[in-house]
Design a protein that fits this description.
Number of strands: 28
CATH architecture of the largest domain: Alpha-Beta Barrel
Number of helices: 17
CATH topology of the largest domain: TIM Barrel
CATH class of the largest domain: Alpha Beta
Helix content: 25-40%
CATH superfamily of the largest domain: Glycoside hydrolase/deacetylase
Strand content: 15-25%
Shape: globular
Number of domains: 3
Radius of gyration: 28 Å
Strand order of the largest sheet: 2-1-3-4-11-10-9-6-7
């Protein structure tokens, strides 16, 4: 037993210890929340020599980075081997297709990461040693904790990358944005990993095996953040719409540990959305089978009805309308694209008159959706539809390079309040499955993959079926109930809604503008501007965390009378801010606590 002859802890000593601990805690907090300012582009001398010896020019790849990195001003500089091996201050180190790395370079890169530096690896970084000998993909795999599954062969069709929306890494682009990579000598690499931000697809987005179509991966390991982009800078040449820099901007914010606030695609913290719809035409009564399967899950769908057929089944239409949306599918099953405006006006007027006779004058005002037969429509179709009161239409996969709703551009002068909302069907439909002649088991696996890809990318899914293919024992009648069950399992993060509800939300979402305030953890906040008309309910914002150990803790209102949102942690890298209360037109300000 130990005895003390006088008090060990005096009040003066206690005050000193508290002061020291507080100062230390503040220093640690400041270090943890510090934005990484330096951005380095590594000029690999060995890679330069290797490219030159093989009749190519490595400088061409670096030039693309140089053009992009100009926006970082004095924070950006190009570094040599001596700079790298000598030790760099933590920042973001870009290893743009640095194929050859010797042992000293590899060690310096690992040391840089262990000190809290962030890394960007592209294409075949480190696949050869300092002598040019093949060393494999271990450098990439170890740094990113991924598995390289091989190359994207020229004969393959998956020469498009689809990015994930609302993700911590590629939120700068709308969900499912399709980027063409071209056919380049630096063949893209396929990867498998737990944290992806983009996948390879063909133009049609046919859902191939998950194990080998990863294109962009990210990882936070200890104090270091890392990104791997599986395609080389040579593919940037094919980015005609200049979409890639938007994705790179959000990647760089994440790598620099800069928390960001942005508007989510969907309401109430939902991560993706789903429309279940039927083109109701031949064998019209089969619509009741589809409705039965939706009703069993408490899901409302949309029935785009061919009015010349629906007239003979008015009782079924009225029965469906109790729980589901009724919408237009033209008067006869003939497309509109290329037809004269006069012909389109005549046909669409007949369609409206048909529907009026089916549902009555009062109910006609609720019919605000359209889907063109054979997905054949043009600008004239949209212009006439809008004058007839149509507010949304479901369009073909070619209508959009993203997997989100958008506003029709057929009348450029219109505001988002008046323009038609277009819902692109980027999901496979029953005609696709039947054309592939798949058995039930293979088709079931494919439709599940399709859902998973839509959900992980934060997209809008439009599962379209035709009434003639929904008889008892038909393929879609077998595939849809398990699909609906999967939606039920995702009730907490998938919004299943009608076409009208999705279009109304998209129009409401457009009324909101979000302005970020501050860059670092200590001064981060945001301002929300809600524009008239109407109120906003369910607005969701996404906040990226400065680190996995610093999630968003609280949203502090700038005024006592402002609505108080909820904070919902989505994963280690981001949280959702959900405004379940109504936001009236006006301005709202909040600060963030991590």
């Amino acid at each position: 037993m130990i005895f003390f002859t006088k008090p060990l802890l005096t009040m003066q000593w206690l005050r000193w210890m508290v002061g020291v601990c507080l100062a230390f805690a503040l220093q640690v907090s400041a270090r943890a929340s510090e934005v990484l300012e330096p951005v380095y582009l590594y000029a690999s001398p060995l890679t330069t020599a290797f490219f030159s010896a093989n009749g190519s020019d490595y400088d061409t790849l670096k030039t693309r980075w140089r053009a992009y990195l100009k926006r970082f001003g004095k924070s950006y500089r190009e570094v040599s081997r001596a700079d790298l091996v000598g030790g760099l201050k933590p920042g973001v180190l870009i290893l743009g297709s640095a194929v050859l790395l010797d042992q000293s370079e590899r060690q310096a890169i690992n040391d840089f990461a262990s000190r809290g530096g962030s890394l960007v690896l592209t294409w075949g970084t480190g696949v050869r040693d300092g002598s040019g000998r093949w060393s494999g993909y271990g450098f990439i795999e170890n740094l990113l904790q991924v598995k390289v599954r091989g190359k994207l062969e020229v004969s393959d069709e998956e020469h498009f990358v689809n990015t994930f929306g609302d993700s911590p890494l590629t939120w700068g682009l709308p969900a499912g944005t399709r980027l063409f990579l071209g056919l380049v000598g630096e063949t893209p690499l396929r990867i498998e990993g737990p944290q992806l931000a983009g996948r390879y697809f063909n133009w049609s987005r046919i859902p191939v095996d998950k194990a080998n179509n990863g294109a962009i991966a990210y990882l936070e390991h200890g104090k270091s953040r890392r990104v791997f982009i599986g395609f080389s800078e040579a593919s940037w040449e094919f980015d005609d719409r200049m979409e890639l820099p938007k994705a790179l901007d959000s990647m760089m914010s994440w790598l620099r540990r800069e928390p960001r606030v942005f508007k989510a695609a969907w309401p109430n913290g939902e991560l993706s959305a789903q429309l279940l719809e039927m083109d109701t035409e031949d064998r019209f009564p089969n619509a009741l089978n589809f409705a039965r399967d939706l009703d069993s899950a408490g899901i409302s769908g949309t029935f785009y009805s061919l009015t010349s057929v629906a007239k003979s089944h008015a009782d079924i239409v009225r029965q469906l309308s109790d729980k589901h949306e009724i919408a237009y599918h033209a008067e006869v099953h003939v497309g509109f694209k290329g037809k004269s405006r006069e012909e389109q006006e005549s046909r669409l007027a007949t369609m409206v008159e048909d529907m009026k006779g089916i549902v009555g004058s009062r109910a006609l005002t609720r019919i605000s959706g359209f889907r063109a037969p054979t997905e054949s429509w043009d600008a004239n179709t949209e212009q006439v539809l809008r004058k007839l009161g149509v507010r949304h239409h479901v369009a073909d996969p070619a209508s959009s390079d993203s997997r989100l709703p958008f506003f029709s551009a057929s009348e450029p002068g219109l505001s988002s309040e008046d323009a038609i909302v277009v819902l692109p069907r980027t999901q496979m439909d029953d005609l696709n499955f039947l054309a592939l002649k798949l058995g039930t088991e293979a088709a079931s696996a494919m439709i599940v993959r399709d859902f998973d890809y839509l959900h992980e990318s934060g997209s809008l899914g439009v599962l379209s079926v035709h009434s003639q293919n929904y008889g008892e024992g038909g393929l879609m009648a077998l595939l849809t109930p398990p699909y609906v069950k999967r939606l039920q399992e995702h009730r907490h993060d998938v919004w299943s809604a009608t076409g009208r509800e999705i279009a109304d939300w998209w129009r409401s979402r457009e009324r909101v503008a979000v302005k970020e305030l501050g860059r670092s953890v200590s001064d981060k906040g945001f301002q929300v501007d809600v524009r008239a008309p109407g109120v906003m309910k369910g607005l969701t914002l996404i906040v990226t965390h400065p680190s996995a150990t610093q999630p968003l803790k609280a949203v502090v209102s700038g005024r006592a009378d402002q609505p108080k949102p909820q904070v919902q942690r989505l994963d280690d890298q981001r949280s959702a801010i959900i405004f379940s209360e109504e936001l009236k037109p006006g301005q709202y300000g909040y600060s963030l606590e991590f």
